[in-house]
Amino acid sequence: IPQQISVAGVDDVKYSQQLHLTTVHQPTYELGAAGARRALGLDAGEQPPRATLAHRLIIRGTTGWALGNG
Questions:
Q1: The pTM is what?
Q2: What's the helix, strand, coil split of the chain in %, to 5?
Q3: How does pLDDT run across 38-49, given as a tens digit for each residue?
Q4: Are 20 and 5 contacting, i.e. CB atoms less than 8 angstroms apart?
Q5: Residues near 28 by Cβ (< 8 Å), separated by ≥ 6?
């Protein structure tokens, strides 16, 4: 069954790295900063623009592709 299932996580936390879990890395500092800017702008009566932040897929050992099945 392990060769038939893929598992992925989100946030690329420390345990993802230790468990070789495929994950999506999100820029947490930039995410927090963008949220704070948006909140401050809303508090000032502004309509802040939508923000899109970069993310990246980190393929480790828990997906079919990494196991040679994808």
A1: 0.65
A2: 35, 15, 50
A3: 888 887 888 877
A4: no
A5: 11
